[in-house]
Structure formats: structure tokens, C-alpha cells
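Lab notebook: predicted structure, single chain.

Context: the supervisor wants predicted structures on file for every construct in the current expression panel, including those that have not yet been purified. This is the next one on the list. No modifications to the sequence; it matches the entry in the shared construct table.
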Amino acid sequence: MQGTLTCAEESRAAGDMLAGTFKPVDTFFLIECSLADEGGWRHNTVKSAAKTGQFAGILRHLSALPRTKTLFVRRPSRNGKQFFIARTNQPQPQLFQTRLDEYAELLSLDMAALAAGTRPVVDGRVMTEVDELYAICANGRHDICCATYGTPVYQQLAAHAGEDRVWQTTHLGGHRLAATLLAFPQGIAYGHLDAVDAEAIVTNHRAGYLLTHKYRGRSAYAGHRLDNAAHQAVGAAEALVRERTRRHRIDELRLHDVQRMADDERRVRFVADGGAAYTAAVRTSLSPPRLASCGEPPKPLPCHEVALYPAS
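Prediction complete. Output recorded below exactly as produced.
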């Protein structure tokens, strides 16, 4: 199987669990740039840009804030300099936008003020709050599956949401789960998307609902700063709670706490609107070696087993 299928084909054939496969990020920076003068998007675009070139100092500046992720974004046949900030780890996530004249203006972003929760200002301009953005991984030079699956999804999303709200992006993580997408401002992660899913993604997101059968997890749970393993366990637990209780509204479940038990089980408790509490037990193990990315050796991947306790 591994010799004939791409990583995404293998993942789909195996019925990989999507929930619990996204790592924690509190703040996203999205910079519009195709990097045409530097050879375009590459295998590790952001890491390469952080080493040399015009973005090296900028990316160091942005990384001063903990738990951040910087993405380059683009739209075909466009050469602009839009910049977005998504704050996902707060009760009301926010998304901000501005147009840059020069990328060096990003060095003026006050990271301490941003961490304190003030409205971001770039080169004296207060950034404008916007309500919606979709970022789809389509970087085929990182993994061919991202372009193969991501490009059709991008095209259909643009048709349903409008071009100004939809962007192709560099690596989001999880090539085998292509097409992968982030919906902002909440930082909701989806995987195994196809073009036919685009309309449902937009319609449900605008109405305030999740698609749980394509759900990978959130980038952050308001007020919590979990490590990678705990965060992914929470994502797996949340998906099962939502599916069993039919609570599909984005904001109707709140993470209360995560407890690490002596046997390495994690107890994850959520509180819903109205006060109902739901607890799930999550055990995480490693699979036999699997394709995580095309062109790379197979490796073990995390697998979650989730059980739901009776509601309290």
C-alpha cells in the first residue's frame, strides 16, 4: 500500500481519525507573499524564509510572542501585501487585517501590546477587525497531496465565500489529511476535505456551526495553554462529545479542565451552555509506521481512543 498510494490516499483508505491532529497555536500571523523573488514557496517555506532574505528579521520579530504560527498566503493572479492577525485563545476570537506598503512595516508591530490584548497597530495604522477568513494548504512543493486536494477546495471556497475571504497557505501540518483548512477567527481545523465540502464549510461557519465529521480540532481553547499531547487529546475528546450530544455550535462547549491520570489516561471535561458537564477519557498510543508525508519514510503516528462518561 505504501508503495502505490500517496500519503493522503493511504490516510483516507485507512480511515484515519481526524480529531486530535492539530497542535496548539494562540496567535496566527498571515502574510501575503508568493516569495517570487526568492524561488517561490518551498518545501519548508517559513523556516527557509526565517534564515535569510527580507523576512528573516520580520519572522524573528513575530516569533517573540509565544505559541504563534506564521503563514504565507497567496491568491492566484494577485500580487498584494495583505497582513492578518488571528487571536484564537480568548473567549471571543478576533481577526484583524491591514494592507502593507512594505513588509518591513511589520517590524513596527508592538508585540508586548499585542500580548496584552490591545488592538494591533502596524506603522501607525490601527488594524481593521474582520469576521471571516479561510486558509487552505495548497503548497505542492511541500507535499503534492496539498496541491492535489487543496487547489480544488480553494477554488470552490472562493466561489462560495468570495475571493477576498479565501487564501492558499503554506504548511498547516498534516499532509496526509489533505485537503487541510483553517477557519478564522476561531482557528478551527478541518481535514480530508474535498471540493464538494466547500459550500457546507462556508454555510455552517457563517451560521456558527462545526462540521464534526471533518473536524481536526481547534488551535486554542480559551484560557488554556496546553502542551501538544494534551491539546490533541482535548481535540479528540471534543469531537466525540459533540457527535454524541449533537452540540455542533462552535461556542456552546467550553473546556473546563484536563487531568492526567496515573495510567497515562487524560480526563477531559467540557461544560455546555445550560451547565451540563461532559467528561471523556482519552488514551493516546502510537500506530505502526505510516506515511505522514509523501517522499518521507513511514513513521508511527499518534492514535486516540476516546470513551465518554455519562453526562453530569
